[in-house]
Automatic annotation (TrEMBL), chain A:
Residues 5-120 form the Ribose-phosphate pyrophosphokinase N-terminal domain. This is ribose-phosphate diphosphokinase. It comes from Remersonia thermophila. The keyword ATP-binding applies. PROSITE patterns: PRPP_SYNTHASE. The keyword Ion transport does not apply.
Automatic annotation (TrEMBL), chain B:
It catalyses: D-ribose 5-phosphate + ATP = 5-phospho-alpha-D-ribose 1-diphosphate + AMP + H(+). The lineage of its organism: Eukaryota, Fungi, Dikarya, Ascomycota, Pezizomycotina. It is an enzyme of class 2 (transferase). This is ribose-phosphate diphosphokinase. Belongs to the ribose-phosphate pyrophosphokinase family. Pfam families: Pribosyl_synth, Pribosyltran_N. Keywords: ATP-binding, Kinase, Magnesium, Metal-binding, Nucleotide biosynthesis, Nucleotide-binding, Transferase. It comes from the Eukaryota. Pathway: Metabolic intermediate biosynthesis; 5-phospho-alpha-D-ribose 1-diphosphate biosynthesis; 5-phospho-alpha-D-ribose 1-diphosphate from D-ribose 5-phosphate (route I): step 1/1. Residues 9-126 form the Ribose-phosphate pyrophosphokinase N-terminal domain.
Amino acid sequence: MRGTLIFAGSSCPELTDKICQNLGMARADAELTQFSNGETSVRILTSVREKDVFVVQSGSPKINDTIMELLIMISACKGGSANKITAVLPYFPYSRQSKKKSHRGAITARMLANLLDVAGVKHVVTVDLHASQMQGFFRCPVDNLHAEPLIARWIRRNVPRWQEAVVVSKNAGGTKRVTSLADALKLNFGMVTTDKRRGNNMSASMTASMIFDGPARNPNPDAAASQARAIDTSETEDGTPATDASDARGDASAPGSPRVNGNGTHSSESPFRRSDTTLSQSSAIDEIDEDYEADGLEYNDQRAHEVTHGRLVQGHVVPDDFPSPSVSAVEPSVHDEDPMMLSHASSFFSPQPHALGGSGDAGASSDEEDDILKDPKVERTITLVGDVKGRTVLIVDDMIDKPGSWIAAAETVVKRGRAKKVYCIATHGVFGGDCLEQMEACDCIDAIVVTNSYPIPEHKLRNSTKLVVLDLSFLLAEAIRRNHYGESMSPLFQHLMD
Amino acid sequence: MSAEMANEIKLISGRSHPDLCEKIAKRLGIQVARTISLNYSNQETSFTVGESVRDEDVFIVQSTATGDVNEGLMELLIMISACRTASARRITAVIPNFPYARQDKKDKSRAPISARLVANMLQTAGANHIVTVDLHASQIQGFFSVPVDNLYAEPSFLRYIRENFNPEDCVIVSPDAGGAKRATSIADHLNTAFALIHKERPRPNVVGRMVLVGNVVDKVAILVDDMADTCGTLVKAAAVLKENGAKAVLALVTHGILSGNAIETLNGSVLEALVVTNTVPLGDKVERCPKLRVIDISPTIAEAIRRTHNGESVSYLFTHAPV
């Protein structure tokens, strides 16, 4: 293309080369090094005067270095009198920190948007932002491309009997992404959700309700700090959004609400409740689930069977007779806490950021969620909504970073839901730590599908038998080409039925 | 309650140099604010302020650890942004060692002016005021549209020389032409002789041929510079001074970055001592290098913070080092 230069950041030279190949041009020359004190040095080795410059940069394990390099490259091009600078960020760094999760937490994604602006970016091209609202953080136009058509096409071509597959979200926050793919492929969808089984401090119950209820919930701790006596009101409140989350429960909700009041009496006989009869703070969620299951049996409602429970200990699904690890670990000291006191939780300094209110976007808190899954003292209930028996399950989210929630979800659909095959599908394969190795070792996962938006090291690719990497370069090249010639982007969002 | 009442100093420490921040806090008689900094598994930095900063005067102390410059810079930006979102009244970034200060001009075609980029980034994140020590070039202050207080380590150095040497025995030497002004300033204050070493530098961090201008015979030659990075320049300059008859050679440097093989280079050199301030975290380098002496700069910074907060003049600190 005339008058265009494409520069590659040090994180993704391969992807950039593929993009350039698609466009039939060569990558522009730049020297990217570090001074001995760790400062980043950039030399643009070709004239950029009055050119359309595209800088491609993805993430890397040294993410802050990568960002600085990108900013300096943009700044250097701007100083070299480039006409227009476009940042192509297949993986947008810090996209998970897109809102104030706790008191006084930073909205780093917005700050990064401002930094790009200050460096001199006039346009941003990215793929599957964690939250599409982030486009509003920029003063310049943002093209948020979707990898979904690419993934859908791969599913149609490579998943045997994909017409019978079920798309499953591994948390409530990601449900929308999943329904979109399910709609595109005309498949059924399900959801896996985790909540703390016998947590009895305030933060636990709040987390549970936050994750369960979705973003509409009021994060006011006073509302969540309802006492045991007040549970009959909070149950209906908590129950209603939960009902929305799955159509399976739709019909049970209306007759359910008057009966909920008497629930406290029979809950202690429930097979899910163990040893102590104290009504724990977090029981609102447990009970509502049990209540629905009880309803299902009582009324012989077939659809209620689509809700399956499992027990999750140290991130793995265990059989029902597995000894509870926390019977003795749960000390009464927390019980003694006056629930009214807990309404002041906001003024306490808690090291758990998610405990300090925030919104219920479970996708955003999946990092912390994963930490909880690993806690050996905490047993959690994992709930599968939807029928996956004997079917292929596609677990979908926007990125794979930590393995915990993926493995838990896969084990749930296989061991509890008796699914036949499990594909873990995400746009960004970040694979932090030994994530890939752990997922590789999990028997319940049959394949892992990601795109090359985030560079995956050669040795990981070679050692993996389950990993499939889809190529994004054509999509990005098209976006660059259309941008340069001022053509419409819309066709890139459409599913091509081939 | 009047608006002034709830306005106190909140001192926040980044992870790069908690030791310096602790010293500043001690000097000010306050506690460092409680914060949580951590890296997610994908190495993204996360930061939370543990106490209210609403309507407070926030000072964030972050240096840049050698090798982790970008890490420290990003953390600083995120800290500023977090305090801004948490309704702090004023945010002052205390950056003893300003990162990217050496990339302050377009010295080649299409070279980035990274120092200006950093300045813009700090303001974009929400910094209202910058406090720093011995900027590589004072023009960097002009990159900001917010006030910048550039403190000097010079008064501390003057005191060190007066306490340890007889100024009449000393010659202040600048290791390059660019630093001549800094060296002459010290020489004027001490009323001593001055010399200069001219060098040719083919590439960054590589030292070329050196020529001494001035007389150092039977004198204590004191090299003065703003930063010691790989120490190649200093060590070569020391050798040149020794060859020219200096009795002893030592170096006074504000920022002891000491990257790469600096410690080994120093240990094997004729340099008697390298005196640095603690603007940059030194880690175990003091143990590894017996020639390294450290001057504590925290009284100067603490005093600047106090004066800035109370709206007093900072000029006193340009000529005097608080005890």
